[in-house]
Amino acid sequence: MRAECNWSGEPGTGSTLVTALRAWPMLRFEVTEDPSPGIDGQRFCHVPGLGLWRACTGANGDIMVSEDQLRTLAANSRGHESFSHRVEQLLGAAWDDALEPFRRAGDGAPVTWLHRVG
């Protein structure tokens, strides 16, 4: 099953929604809070087995990676593969991959039957 809901609220409401949704650990969900004047947006994704991922987003929806995150990444990476893997983590690639089939099922999209095999 899939549900989608547009919402509006004070900055920080997204994290309140995420806290409530995490009470059901079997849910896959994505909560996006658009930026407000002087406040970055946020994107939260939760997938069973991966847990919760969070990032700040800019006005155009891109994931924002801070200077401190990049410095830490550069200082702690032990080669190209380690660096690439950590960049993928910062960008939430595994969460995007897990949630993409559900995004394609939005309003106006052709029906795609999702099922579990095994």
Per-chain topology:
Layout: H1 13-21, E1 29-33, E2 41-47, E3 51-57, E4 63-64, H2 67-76, H3 80-91, H4 93-103
Antiparallel strand pairs: 1-2, 2-3, 3-4
What's the quick description here?
This protein has 118 residues and is an alpha+beta fold.
Structural overview:
It contains 4 helices and 4 strands; from the N terminus they run αββββααα. It is an alpha+beta fold. The protein has a 4-stranded antiparallel sheet with strand order 1-2-3-4, with helices on both faces. A hairpin with a 5-residue loop joins β3 and β4 (63-64).
Count of helical regions:
4
Give the class from helix and strand content and strand pairing. Answer: alpha+beta
Q: What oligomeric state do these chains adopt?
A: single chain
Strand content range: 15-25%
Calculate the terminal CA-CA distance, rounded to whole Å.
Answer: 18 Å
Number of domains: 1
What is the number of strand segments? 4
Overall mean pLDDT score? 87
Biggest sheet, spatial arrangement of strands: 1-2-3-4
Low-confidence stretches: none
- 3D shape: globular
Radius of gyration: 16 Å
Helical amount: 25-40%
Largest sheet: 4 strands, antiparallel
Task: Give helix and strand order, one letter per element, not per position.
Answer: HEEEEHHH
